[in-house]
Amino acid sequence: MKLKREFADFYKEIRIDSETHALKEKREILEDDIKSKLPGILVDHNISISKTDIRMIDQGSYKYNTTIKDDIVDRDVAVMIPLDTSTNSDPRIIKGYLRDAINISPRTVAIKEPCVRASYYENGKEWLHIDLPLYATDGSCVYLARGKEFSNSYSWEDADPDGLNDYLCGQINGNDQLRRIICFIKKWRNEQYSGSTNDHEVPPSIGLTLLACDCFSAQSTIEGDDDLLSLQKTMKGILDKFTYTADSSGNLIKTITKYLPVTPYTDVFKKMKESSSYITTFYNRLSKAVDNLTNAVNVESAHDAGEYVQKVLGDSFTVPAKEAVAASAQNKREHSFG
Amino acid sequence: MTVKEILESYEEITVEEQVLEGVLFFTLFEKKFLFFAPEKDDPSSMATVYLYDDNLLDFPHVMLRENSIIDGKYLPNGTYRWICLFEQESIVNTIVSYEDKIFDCVDRLIELLSMTSVEREREFQKEFMYYWNSESAGNNKVSVYLEQATQFTELDAFYGEKKVRLIQKGLNLSDIDDRDKSERKWTHHIENDVFYIPVTDSRGILPPHRGYQWTANEVQNIVYGKQIEHISDDTFQSIKSKVPKTQDVILVFGMRTDLSNVYFALKVKCKNSNNHTLLEKLLSDIVTLESLPTERKDYSYLCEQIGNDIGLLNKRILLIGAGSLGSYVAFELVKNGAKYLKIYDGDKFEEENVLRWAYGGIGKGSNKATTIQILLKLLHPEINIEVCDANISAHSLMEEISNKDLIIFTIGSSDEQIKLNSVLKRANCPIPAIFVWLEEGGTNSHILFVNYQMPGCFECLYTDSNGELVNNRARKNSSAATENNIIRNGCGGTRAAYGTAILLRTTAALLDVIRDYDEHKIMTNTLIDITPERITISDTEFPMEACNCCGDTGK
């Protein structure tokens, strides 16, 4: 099997196993601030909730254990409060209350479309942000507060954060190869989109994770898991999910749709579709990655295969020495000791 | 091909001036190098490369120190930094052709300069201690003694002449109270609390090197990493709860990777702050850092470094007999990982035996066990040898087995061995005993492994199928051969003539038996025959059902 050790080393290199203590402490202080300050702010606006009514749930890669190293630590924690959404129909206002509860130095807090973001800086550089999607539980329904602070577009959107967690944990937990493949695909995305400035042009992690789960191809031999073949087949499977659609000028362009497997069953690539070029770029880059991985699978030499994989996953993937060089070096190695 | 032709065959290389035959400059990746070809008339020589006039490049294997030429006769003035491209004695140069040596050297240089950041990090970590100790301050070399390296722990600092020992609390070093005349060799210093911090994830941790010095950030990144957790939760909780008593502290970090195993110390000077925990101190009080030249020196680490049997480390071994065989066995047990021995022997070391005594001429006229104790302690201060300068009695044997893990008999007397075997069997001895003896004649020897919970004991060898006592049935030498090898020196004194080969052979076989026992490969009581040709399970009938000690009759 080619590149077994290189893939294992690469996974060790990019993987984040758990929250650091620095992150955990920041998150816990943030959660304490929410629980201690938000009820008072809400009461001032005639919304009565107690500290124990507030529920926090882990979301995102830390929940699914698919976190990889990145320039900025990105943590997602959902905040759920009981709320009458018909009386409090404007989620932007409730998100404002959450912002006010946590807007304490050294945090920088901003209202984003799907969440409230607490950012942490050191020496003028952001090193961590904790995204806090705000959910309202109203009767038996759960709603996500959507909308930027001053945007005209806002809504309480049907949601099922627990259901999404259950779905993804059910898919990933106990399937170590799938977990690795998700990390590899996210690393590929980070490499390919490292220069991006617009969030919407980058394929979202949730989209890549759901597609990886759908298209995952388990591959192993008697030597163990074959991550190269699994990655190639999984990414090829994702590529095959693209379909043609016609743009406003009637040109055929590639597109991809992936609906959330739980309420609200929306398309996770909807934002990317705001510009057809984003999806086209996604397709082209994915297509190139699949070509490189296919070449890596097909070439005989581990060195050549490594070079193809490095084009996909970046410099952190180490290329093994050329076989002739390695064999020659082995033949001339000193085997004696005095 | 000439050197120049070989170098010019690389697209990346531009050959510049040739200084001497086989010595020339070339540029590669915009850096200038001085290349020395291997010597044609010396097959064991190899090619060498120096980086020329570049003080900034901070690649692994490009040496930190430079040689300056200011009035060059053959070489231009400037600075030259040697590039270490070969692990020491890693290649049999004689079998590599002159041309291939040059190709290999250039290939390695290109590979080195083409490394990705991850590869560079791995190479720096492989050479971590070289960089750490090269960049460290002070003349006092720090020796670290740990009992374990996986948990946060506190250490004591002892200062000697130009040396500092940082010793895990509770770890006893036998020479720590030694004196030079009236002066103590080691003084306990309490002005700095010392802590050992094991690193569990080494990603991103680089040694100081050219253009990169450790600051508070590096320490803070280890104990309070933002993205990567470098220490375990237990270690973090310890750092978070521990309140140092001193303003400044010394930290020892231990870091294990696939490629290296490193331990490095640094002194952390802090602001005066009362009641700050160690974590608070490290996060907010650091003023300066001083890296200290460090070596880990404890016995378990040294054993691990040379591939010793770690299973022996915590075994308490009772060695009965410190004669020729016992002296070899004691020495090799300690060199192979056994740091606790208790030795019994009432004999004095006589000059006639000097050539087959493991320690040469030291200790003539002294008690053998005591001499061994003195000499073994010189090997390492953690080695703990207890001795009794008398032959072991049945009573002492019973006391000893209550706190030992293994008994080894290296006494020649069959009577003593039979007697003590019987004591152990009657006591249903819970620990195994290994009887080791040489046959007269100096050719054959034997090892008998006995677990007293199973059938078979030393007396079985002296018992026939009818339960009658006979002489040792394991004996391979004929009586005539034996008789020829006995030297008589009057008054009934005899000495069997044998050289040290049998002692070395038997001791090596004993070490293998102990390892096999430790790895649960010895499942039954076993007799082993050792000859110059081979080491085999004996064909002597064993155990004997009719044995009066352990067999049916004995029951």
TrEMBL record, chain A:
Transmembrane segments: none annotated. It comes from the Bacteria. GO terms for molecular function: ATP binding; metal ion binding; nucleotidyltransferase activity. It catalyses: GTP + ATP = 3',3'-cGAMP + 2 diphosphate. Coiled coil: none annotated. GO terms for biological process: defense response to virus; nucleotide metabolic process. Keywords: Antiviral defense, ATP-binding, Magnesium, Metal-binding, Nucleotide metabolism, Nucleotide-binding, Nucleotidyltransferase, Transferase. Pfam families: DncV-like_NTFase (PF21654). This is Cyclic GMP-AMP synthase. It comes from Faecalicoccus acidiformans.
From TrEMBL, chain B:
Gene3D superfamilies: NAD(P)-binding Rossmann-like Domain. Pfam families: ThiF (PF00899). Residues 312-487 form the THIF-type NAD/FAD binding fold domain. GO terms for molecular function: nucleotidyltransferase activity; ubiquitin-like modifier activating enzyme activity. The keyword Lipoprotein does not apply. Keywords: Nucleotidyltransferase, Transferase. SUPFAM superfamilies: Activating enzymes of the ubiquitin-like proteins. The keyword Coiled coil does not apply. This is Molybdopterin/thiamine biosynthesis adenylyltransferase. It comes from Faecalicoccus acidiformans.
